[in-house]
């Protein structure tokens, strides 16, 4: 029996989800075939690489799958490994021998203030850092992917600030009706009655956040509707703690699943930037007015890390989470006295 690469099935909070860690040391945790209330939402989700540039121009690490530029892969840790310098200095006792040693799955019932949840979490060593990959699925139909940074500061540059740009690959298949989805961008333009607008993207490529316009994105089906005849969709809501820079140049890339070796995989090139997402990966037309497409999104969450090396981070890095939300719109059938059957 394989110790890595197997698919593991979990259920809870109205969800059916599979997870796997394909290799011992690479791109980390993957989520597959996420269905909510019997409807497919996501074919595959992962956080396969990160770009970490330091102030002063060097170093700039590209961590994760096919690590480049002095970066390191995400190496699977036992979930009980301490958040400290120890797993980097002496990894032997802490390295996971099997994927099930690394992953913790929890289900929580709904309470007075929160929905029920299904949460899948795994921990990885990356140089002196630790990264925690966490996926939360709620009984409201939301998905909250997140990544935590922990471990230890760079022992050679403990006081030097840097940015963690963490790249998620999100392959949404709305109700399993691919390739009949479109990618749309939302802008709040003004407070007039028609001040909010969704615009379908006609080409693959890089998209930029705009807080002033409350910008967000969605993948919407052109064929699947709920019982009120609204096209099913899922939205990407992306908070921002740091913006694009010369290393991490965009916020979202809209592209398609083609199934060839480059597109199917998560290797986005040898450059110490994300330029190949734009120049090689997200290239070509989209077809919102005709056939639609099998949409794949790359989404970046960022954290500007100003080290607290003379205080709270001198011994280890308390886990710091950054996340975003994948939220249903008109996805769920409505059953109420005023709204539906």
What would you say this structure looks like, in words?
It is a single chain. With about 350 residues, this protein is mainly β. The chain has a single domain (about 10-330), classed as Beta-galactosidase, Chain A, domain 5, CATH 2.70.98. The protein has 4 helices and 21 strands. The strands form 3 sheets. Strands 1, 2, 4, 5, 6, 12, 15, 18 and 19 form a 9-stranded antiparallel beta sheet that branches. Strands 3, 7, 8, 9, 10, 11 and 20 form a 7-stranded antiparallel beta sheet that branches. A 5-stranded antiparallel beta sheet has the order 14-13-16-17-21, with no helix packed on it. The protein starts with 7 loop residues before the first strand and ends in a 12-residue tail after the last strand.
Describe the structure in brief.
By secondary structure, this protein is mainly beta.
CATH superfamily annotation: Copper amine oxidase, catalytic domain
Terminal-residue CA separation: 48 Å
Mean pLDDT: 93
* Largest β sheet strand count, sense and barrel closure: 9 strands, antiparallel
Helix content: under 10%
What is the strand content? 35-45%
Q: Which structural class best describes the helix and strand composition? A: mainly beta
- CATH first level: which class? Mainly Beta
């Amino acid at each position: 029996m394989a110790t890595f690469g197997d698919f593991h099935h979990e259920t809870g909070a109205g969800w059916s989800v599979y997870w796997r860690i394909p290799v011992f040391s690479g791109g980390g945790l993957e989520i597959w075939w996420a269905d909510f209330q019997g409807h497919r939402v996501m074919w595959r989700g992962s956080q396969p690489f990160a770009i970490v540039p330091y102030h002063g121009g060097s170093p700039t690490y590209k961590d994760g799958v096919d690590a480049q530029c002095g970066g390191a892969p995400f190496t699977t840790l036992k979930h009980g490994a301490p958040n400290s310098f120890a797993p980097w200095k002496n990894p032997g006792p802490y390295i996971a021998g099997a994927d099930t040693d690394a992953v913790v799955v929890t289900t929580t019932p709904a309470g007075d203030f929160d929905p029920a949840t299904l949460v899948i979490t795994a921990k990885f060593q990356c140089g002196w850092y630790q990264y925690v990959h966490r996926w939360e699925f709620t009984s409201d139909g939301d998905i909250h992917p997140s990544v935590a940074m922990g471990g230890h500061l760079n022992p050679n540059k403990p006081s030097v600030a840097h940015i963690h740009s963490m790249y998620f690959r999100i392959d949404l298949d709305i109700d399993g009706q691919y390739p009949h989805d479109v990618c749309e961008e939302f802008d709040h333009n003004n407070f007039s009655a028609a001040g909010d607008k969704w615009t379908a993207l006609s080409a693959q490529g890089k998209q930029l956040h705009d807080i002033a316009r409350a910008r967000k994105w969605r993948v919407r089906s052109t064929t699947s509707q709920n019982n009120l005849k609204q096209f099913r969709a899922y939205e990407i809501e992306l908070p921002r703690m740091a913006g694009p820079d010369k290393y991490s140049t965009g916020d979202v890339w809209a592209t398609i699943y083609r199934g060839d070796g480059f597109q199917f995989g998560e290797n986005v090139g040898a450059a110490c930037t994300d330029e190949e997402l734009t120049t090689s990966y997200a290239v070509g037309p989209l077809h919102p007015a005709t056939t639609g497409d099998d949409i794949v999104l790359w989404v970046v969450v960022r954290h500007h890390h100003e080290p607290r090396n003379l205080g709270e981070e001198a011994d280890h890095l308390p886990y710091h989470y950054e996340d975003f939300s994948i939220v249903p719109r008109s996805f769920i059938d409505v059953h109420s006295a005023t709204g539906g059957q």
